[in-house]
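P.,

For your records, the input lines for the assembly:
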Amino acid sequence: MGDPVVKKFMYINRHAPCGTIYAVEGLEVVLIGAAFEQEVCMAFVDDGVYQLKKNQDTAALEIKNYAPAYRALGDYDVHKLYVERESLEQRGLTEQDLMQLTYEDEDDDWKEKPSLKVVTRIELADLIAEQDVLLNF
Amino acid sequence: MKFAIMVNEGPYTHQSSDSAYQFTKAALKQGHEIFRVFFYHDGVNNGTRFTAPPQDDRHLVNRWSELAEQHGLDLVVCVAAAQRRGVIDDKEAQRYGKDGNNIAPGFRISGLGQLIEAGIQSDRLLVFGD
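C-alpha cells returned:
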C-alpha cells in the first residue's frame, strides 16, 4: 500500500434545517466522513444558510434540534464552512444572525479561530471547482 | 472510468432512481466500472422487495436487483437511513424484534463509511437526488 489517498470533499448544504431530512442526514455524513481524514469543507447555499441560524428552536415542531451539533464540527476537524453571501442577502440575513462556530487550530498553538467564512457566489464557484468529491444535501 | 453512484430519492416519487439506473446501465455497457451504488435518504426505499408496482409499469427494485446479479454490482443501503424508514435485513430484524425483513436481492445494509470510501476510491461520484 502506498500513501493513503487524500481527496478534497465538499458537502454542499442547500436545504433549510427543518422541513426535510436532508440537513440532518447530511450532517451525519459529515460526522462519519471526518473519521476518514480527508480534506473536508462545507458550503451553505440557498435555504441551507438557515442551518447556521442562531437560536433555532424546534420545540413546537416536536422534532429534535440538531443545530447544537454544528458546534461539534470543529472538534471533528471540520472547520472550513463557507456561507454564500448572496444566499444570506436574499434572505435578509447577515453574518451576525449566524451561530459563532469556532475550532482550535493545532498548527497555531490551539488558538480558537472562526470556522465560518462568508464568500461570494463567484468565490464559491472557484472553491467548488477545486474539489474532488461533491456531496449535495 | 470508475464511478460511484449515490441515489438520494425514493423510487416512483422522484426521477433520481430511474436516472441513476439508466446511467449505471449505460456506463456498464460502455465498459466502465461501477465501484458501488449507495442509497441514502428516501433512496433506501429502492431496496425493499415488497415494492409491487402495477404490471404495466417498470419495476425499479427488480431492475436494480437484476443489474446487480448480472454485473456483480455492490448495492449498499445506508443502515441509519434504512432503520428510520423500515428497510431491514434479517440481522436488523432480529436486533429490533421485527417479524420479518424486506431487503431486496442484491442489496446489503451497511454504514455511511461505505459512501465516503466510494468517494475516495472512485474517479467520479455521481449524486442523483433533489
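Two observations worth noting. Strands of chain B lie at 2-7, 33-39, 75-78, 107-110, 124-128. Helices of chain B lie at 16-29, 60-71, 79-85, 90-95, 113-121.

Regards
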